Amino acid sequence: MAKHDVTIEVNGEARSGEVESRFLLVHFLREVLGLTGTHIGCDTTHCGACTVLLDGRPVKSCTVLAVQADGRKVMTVEGLEQNGQLHPIQEGFYQEHGLQCGYCTPGMMMTGYALLEDNPDPSEAEIRHAISGNLCRCTGYVNIVKSVRHAAAAKRAS
Ligand code: FES
Ligand code: FES
């Protein structure tokens, strides 16, 4: 299997590695960089637990090859907190109890983050549409929607 050198800007820092052509971005993040906040739930593009931002757009990192991210920007859940301050999307999930087991939460937060970058005041329907590719088997989604709305309000106020 051919090997490739890749350099990906991850959470603002250039990170390099040598990967096989078939190596998935999620494995690069977790196994090479140790960023295990990005979860693997299904490996088949269904659950969204592996969602990260690629050049600002949410993608399922189990469906992106590491070589496809070469030279591009990736943001993971570890990139949300800045200087000890939780991002409003993290604070929203905390305040509104938007999680139970927490397995889906990193992907939910990255999808919520991307939504709020595009739409600072999303309706419940718009939030539900945005997270439709992220599955949660615990919460029933009600508190997840509240969490995103909480974050939207906090972001608008700041
Ligand atoms: S692990 Fe990627 S969508 Fe489920
Ligand atoms: S909190 Fe358990 S899967 Fe969402």
Please give a structural write-up.
With 158 residues, this protein is of the alpha+beta class. It is 34% helix and 17% strand. The chain is built from 5 helices and 5 strands. The protein has a 5-stranded mixed sheet with strand order 2-1-5-3-4, with helices on both faces. Strand 3 and strand 4 (57-60) form a beta hairpin. Helix 2 (88-95) crosses helix 5. The radius of gyration is 15 Å and the shape is globular. 42% of the residues are buried. The structure holds FE2/S2 (inorganic) cluster (2 copies). One FE2/S2 (inorganic) cluster is lined by residues 40-43, 45-50, 60, 62. One FE2/S2 (inorganic) cluster is lined by residues 99-104, 136-139.
Name some characteristics of this structure.
single chain; 158 residues; alpha+beta; five-stranded mixed beta sheet; 5 helices; 5 strands; 17% strand; binds FE2/S2 (inorganic) cluster
The dominant shape is globular
**Strand-residue proportion:** 15-25%
In this structure, how is the largest beta sheet organized?
Answer: 5 strands, mixed
The helix content is 25-40%
Mean pLDDT across every amino acid position: 97
- Our count of helices gives 5
Q: Which strand order does the major sheet show?
A: 2-1-5-3-4
Task: Give the SSE map.
Blueprint: E1 3-10, E2 13-20, H1 25-32, E3 51-54, E4 57-60, E5 73-75, H2 88-95, H3 105-118, H4 124-130, H5 142-157
Parallel strand pairs: 1-5
Antiparallel strand pairs: 1-2, 3-4, 3-5
Helix pairs in contact: 2-5, 3-5
Bound molecules: FE2/S2 (inorganic) cluster (FES) (2 copies).
